[in-house]
Amino acid sequence: MPAKLPLLDSLYAARARDAMPTLKGAAQADQSPLLSLTYGLADPDLFPRDELAAATAAVLADDAPDALNYGQSFAGLTEQVVGRLRAQGVEAEPENILVGYGSSQILALLPEVFIDRGDTVIIEGPSFMGAVRRFVMSGANLVTVPTDHEGMDVDALEVTLRDLAARGVRPKFIYTIPTFHNPSGVTMSLARRQRLVSLAAEYGVLVVEDDAYGELRFRGDDLPTLASLDAEGWVVRVCTYSKILAPGVRVGWAYARPEIIERLNMFKHEGDSGPFLTRVIARYAAEGRLEAHIAQLREHYRQKCDVMIEAIAREFPREVQADRPDGGFFVWCKLPHGMGATALVDRAAREGVSFLPGVNCYANGQGDDAIRLAFSFLSADQIQEGVARIGKAMRSM
Amino acid sequence: MPAKLPLLDSLYAARARDAMPTLKGAAQADQSPLLSLTYGLADPDLFPRDELAAATAAVLADDAPDALNYGQSFAGLTEQVVGRLRAQGVEAEPENILVGYGSSQILALLPEVFIDRGDTVIIEGPSFMGAVRRFVMSGANLVTVPTDHEGMDVDALEVTLRDLAARGVRPKFIYTIPTFHNPSGVTMSLARRQRLVSLAAEYGVLVVEDDAYGELRFRGDDLPTLASLDAEGWVVRVCTYSKILAPGVRVGWAYARPEIIERLNMFKHEGDSGPFLTRVIARYAAEGRLEAHIAQLREHYRQKCDVMIEAIAREFPREVQADRPDGGFFVWCKLPHGMGATALVDRAAREGVSFLPGVNCYANGQGDDAIRLAFSFLSADQIQEGVARIGKAMRSM
Q1: A14, A68, A204 member nearest B248 (Cβ)
Q2: Burial B374-394 (b: 16+ CB within 10 A, else e)
Q3: Which of A36, A134, B55, B98 is buried deepest, with most CB atoms within 10 A?
Q4: A92 CA to chain B: closest CA distance, Å?
Q5: Are the beta carbons of A260 and B72 separated by less than 8 Å?
Q6: Which positions in chain B touch A20 (Cβ < 8 Å)?
Q7: A388 touches chain B (CB under 8 A)
């Protein structure tokens, strides 16, 4: 092949000419011998390896003709999702559920169905940039609403919605992570949940409730999901097996009103999750195994979170503010005044430790005053060592 | 939830307002007790169930931490693809390869990267509508070039390219299935392959070579792929493990020049094929197992094809023209003058047999003079019975 194909560049679609670089899979980053607190990887010690092997063997022994041929996601998995939702008091039917390749396929389908170039999407600051970048690539204008210790600032949201309406702009959806927020760890209060859902209905705007971490509660009582507070059906709740089972199985799901599910389904150009792994998960999850596994995960991640919080109290300057989350994978640390997160990344790298600087969690350039530490992946000893090294880097600045 | 959400319809993106219905997975169709010759499903008797179970168990025993966490497609699988290509005399490097969720993800990425609304794509008539619909959904204008017993009519292609160029239209790509065509079963001659590749270079148009069936040759010698005839790099070759291993594993791949692979990769919004099943396939395929399996498939499908061709000769009116394909999954039958394919579908349903009417294989309304019969899925006995029933329906018309 010649080094450069003449005229190839002029064949690209407009959207592909200046495409943003891919968000690479997290696992391949950090090849260096750093202690990485950067990514929300699952703890590999907790993968139910033997049970998944047994489930796979059983599916291949009993259902190979269907599991290995062309076909859609296994209907039995949808039924399990419906059953779990009903057990949580949610009215759910199979037509409320869309199974996809992880929540990432669902989050990529949402802009396909709802975003024309120039449409407005409301996000939280900070937020999960993996999702937000997909909205940007579809041509959305982002409006960032701030968050605090109770989650999204719903007063600010109301002002934003009112201002946009005054300018004739109706946002397509509000993207929020109300429970064990990524990156902030915060859980939105019940009062704000109710207000958010009621504002969405008032302004006729959808709410995308990213609930990747909701089942990983360490302490306190479950709060109702936005979807369960929503009598009219403005909420699309996005969930995943990545955090409660294994990211590698690539299966997530959405709950929404049937016409939204149907429309999302129409845009699954890239195909279905397929009949095989969806059967494996259903087989694994039967007989209460998934619930028992989640209980084990909660205890395990609670311990690792506590180890991190205690290490932070011991190793970081007192001016660092780090709230103990009630669940999820992350601790968000506000840095002392004048200490920049990106500068700290460089300093910490010299100590052999990495984490996510806050600027990577905002779409508007904010965030150099904070860092995100993941306690999900490393062992308790490694977490302590990593936090100690970050503390050393902080004190050297 | 209220039956209808006010204002929801006005939230949809333009592309989602009049979206075409999804192409449903083939397996769920034909729930009735019909003998179905409709879909190109793989023969479940040939799934290497035990070997896949062993490969899965081995991956989970040895590599669970990587296989089950976040991560990209397994690099070892890409290396296997590269190795197989090199064994076929193709210069290939890992950066020439993109692994995706079946060829369907690759075929969905192509319009994302190359099609702006109103762009032109050249297709064959007949063609594989699963791919063509994706091009239509991205806003492409289709131009159909006819085919005959040697594949795409390259004289007609040249006229089309010249006419389009005269009107200032440069098509983005030519979509072709040169080997064991779906639906026609035809294999493009070497002379036409050379001419097609040279026309593509002359007019600066990409060629998408859908090579889903190329490894399933029953008789005759392999012809060079378009990609291997293409010194400049205008060809994107799309392949899949669906036909040579199992559709349910949902893994396919593309071979193209690195800048095209890179660009396609940027648009994998819906995520990567993941680290698990790509490892399972690589583990299964090691030590020559895949080559041995393909040899077995070729023999098995050859026998079923022969059964179908013999049954057609015995059961169909003499006026039906059905060529014996050299590979693949399908026999294409030209109906006697005056016999409509859609009318025959209805008549055949009453006999308890189904197949694909030719109109489903054209984007321009042609095709009521032909039907596609798949010999891949049913057993030899069922094929004979199905063909006999279609013959009965034909004679009753």
Answers
A1: A68
A2: bbbbbeeebbbbbbbbbbebb
A3: B98
A4: 10
A5: no
A6: 266
A7: no
Q: Which of B70, B204, B249 is opposite residue A276, by nearest beta carbon?
A: B249
User: Tens digit of pLDDT for each residue in B144-158?
Assistant: 999 999 999 999 999
Q: Between A and B, how many CB-CB pairs are < 8 A?
A: 280
Q: Is the pLDDT score of A247 beyond 80?
A: yes
Check whether B373 has a pLDDT greater than 50: yes
Q: What is the pLDDT, as a whole number, of residue A31?
A: 47
pLDDT number for residue B33? 63
Residues 158-187 of B with CB under 8 A from A: 170, 172-173
> Could you tell me which residues come within 8 angstroms of residue B275 by beta carbon, excluding any fewer than 6 positions away?
A25, A27, A248, B66, B67, B68, B69, B70, B71, B72, B73, B74
Q: Rounded to two decimals, what is the model's pTM?
A: 0.93
Residue A366 has pLDDT above 50, yes or no: yes
Q: What is the pLDDT of residue B22?
A: 45
For chain A, say whether B48 makes contact (Cβ under 8 Å): no
| Dist CA B296 CA B239 (whole Å) | 19
Residues of B in contact with A12 (CB under 8 A): 113-114, 263
H/E segment holding residue A92 = none
Highest average pLDDT, of A12-16, A21-25, B361-365, comes from B361-365
Beta strands in chain B (DSSP E): 35-36, 97-100, 120-125, 141-148, 151-152, 173-176, 206-210, 235-240, 252-255, 321-322, 330-334, 353-354, 356-357, 370-374
Which residues 88-107 in chain A show a CB within 8 A of chain B?
91, 100-102, 104-105
pLDDT of residue A88: 84
Cβ contact (<8 Å) for B113 and A65?
A: no
CA distance B237 to B225: 8
Q: How confident is the model at residue A33 (pLDDT cuts 50, 70, 90)?
A: low
pLDDT, tens digit, 9 for 90 and up, residues A278-335: 999 999 999 999 999 999 999 999 999 999 999 999 999 999 999 999 999 999 999 9
Instruction: Specify the pLDDT at position B267.
Output: 85
CB spacing of A27 vs B109 below 8 angstroms? no
Angle at A82 between CA A77 and CA A88, to 5 degrees: 130
**B29 and chain A: CB distance < 8 Å anywhere?**
no
Q: Where are the beta strands (DSSP E) in B141-230?
A: 141-148, 151-152, 173-176, 206-210
Put simply, the answer to whether A25 touches B105 (Cβ < 8 Å) is no
To 5 degrees, how large is the angle CA B81–CA B85–CA B90?
Answer: 145
Strand A370-374 versus strand A330-334 pairing type: antiparallel
Which residues on B lie below 8 Å from A263 (Cβ)? 12, 16, 19
As a whole number of angstroms, the distance between CA B293 and CA B286 comes to 12
Taking the C-alpha atoms of residue A390 and residue A348, their distance in angstroms, rounded to an integer, is 6
**Any B CB within 8 A of A122 CB:** no
**Could you tell me if B77 and B283 are in contact, meaning their C-beta atoms sit under 8 angstroms apart?**
no
Q: How many CB atoms lie within 10 A of CB A6?
A: 10
- Per the CB < 8 A criterion, the answer to whether B261 and B95 are in contact is yes
Minimal Cβ distance to A204: which of B7, B231, B242? B7
Which of B27, B67, B137 faces A70 most closely, judged by CB atoms?
Answer: B27
Q: Do A249 and B68 touch (CB under 8 A)?
A: yes
pLDDT of residue A28: 36
Sorted by where each starts, the structural domains of chain B and their CATH numbers stand as 9-48+291-395 (3.90.1150.10), 63-288 (3.40.640.10)
Q: Is the confidence at residue B20, as pLDDT, over 80? A: no
* Per-residue confidence band for B295, with pLDDT thresholds at 50, 70 and 90: very high
Residue B389 and residue B352 in contact, taking contact as beta carbons nearer than 8 Å: yes
Per-residue model confidence as pLDDT tens digits over B227-273: 999 999 999 999 999 999 999 999 999 999 999 999 999 888 767 78
